[in-house]
Amino acid sequence: MSLLLNICGILVATSQFPDTTLQQFYQQYYHCNIQLAKTDSSTQLETPQTVAELFPQPATWWPIFTSDQLNSESFKQLIAKGIRPGVILPNEYFSAIKYYEIKKAVNQGAIPIAFYQMTHSKYFAAKATFSMAIGLRPLAALIETGWDENIIAQPAGSYIIQSNSPDELPIPARKIQHHQHYFYQAITDPSQSTGYQVVINPPLGMPLNNIEYPQLGISWDLNRTQFTSTQEGIETSLWGYILITLSTVVIPLDYIYSAHYPSLLSTFGSSISWISLLLGGGLLLILIISIIRRRRINARN
User: Fold this and answer.
1) Per-residue pLDDT for 85 more than 60?
2) Cβ neighbours of residue 281 closer than 8 Å, sequence gap 6 or more
C-alpha cells in the first residue's frame, strides 16, 4: 500500500514513510518538512524519482563504472582527460583476467568502490581487507538497496546510495554529511541529473567541467581491529597489517575449492581466529621441542 507524502506542498507517492534521519536530510538540504497527505484526485502526483528535479541546483556529478565497462569509450575518455572515476569491485568471485583489468584501471587512476550489504557487514569488512591485500583498497561503499535507517550506525566513511525501488524516497541530491558519514545519491539515468549525484556507467558525451569528487574514505572493523582507508593510505594497528597479510590465503583457497568469492570471505573472520590459535600452538610446540632438546644435550654432557 502506497503512502502520499506532502513535501513542500508537492504530493509524492511512496511505499513507506521516511525515518527520522531521512526527514532531517530533507529539512536540512531541501528545506522541507515531510508530512502525510490525504488523497486528492485533483492534484498531480509526483514519483520519488522526480523529487530531485523539483529542488533544482546546478548539476555536479562523479562517474563510477561497473567492472564490465572498463573498456568503454566513456571510461577511456575520462582516464585520458586525467579524471579519476570510480570502479565498482565485483561482489562475487572474479577471474584473474578480471582482476588484472581492474588493477590496470586502478593503476591508471580509478578509485575502488566496494559493495556494502546492510545484512552482511562482516562480509564487507573481510572483503575490504582482502581487496586491500591485492592492491584494490576501497575508498567508498556502494549500497544498492536504498536508504536504511541503520546506515548511520555503520562505520564512518563515504556511502553511495542507490535506490532499488521506484517507490522508495531517495536521499537528497546533495553532498550530505552526517557526523562522520558522507552520503551521495547514485543514479543510472543521467537525464535526471540535478544537484550532486554519482552517475553509474555514464554515457560518452556528458559534460566534464562539472565533475566534483566526493569525500573519499571508508572504515571497517575486522576481528576487533579497525581499518580506515583514506586517500593517503590505510590506518590500522600492527595486528591489522598482519590480518591484511593473512587475508591472501583466500586466493589459493578460491582456486583449490572453486568456491565463490563471498562464501570464502564470509568465514574469513573466524578463519583468522583459527589461524591465530594454530600459530600460537605451533610456537608453543617449537618452544617445548627446544626445551627437550636442550635437556637431552645437557644430560649427555
Assistant:
1) yes
2) none
* Number of domains observed in the structure of the chain: 2
Whole-angstrom Cα distance, residue 182 to residue 50?
22
Same-domain pairing of 76 and 17: no
Single out the residue of 81, 64, 86, 69 nearest to residue 190, CA to CA. 64
Distance CA 211, CA 77 (A): 14
Mean pLDDT score of the chain, rounded to an integer?
85
What pTM did the predictor assign? Answer: 0.82
**Which of the four pLDDT bands, split at 50, 70 and 90, describes residue 41?**
low
The per-residue pLDDT for 262 is: 47
CA-derived radius of gyration, the chain: 24
- Whole-angstrom Cα distance, residue 20 to residue 10? 19
Contacts 24+ apart (CB under 8 A), 237-240: none
Kindly state the DSSP code that residue 68 receives in the 8-state scheme. G
Residue 191, CA atoms < 13 Å, CB-side half-sphere: 0
Domain that holds residue 10: 3-49
Q: Is residue 238 part of a domain?
A: yes
**110-157, pLDDT tens digit by residue?**
999 999 998 888 888 888 988 898 899 999 999 999 999 999 999 999
First CA to last CA across the chain, in angstroms?
A: 89
- Give the contacts of 42 (CB within 8 A, at least 6 positions apart): none
Q: Are residues 72 and 138 in the same domain?
A: yes
Beta carbons of 59 and 189 less than 8 angstroms apart: no
Decide the pairing of beta strands 181-187 and 176-178: antiparallel
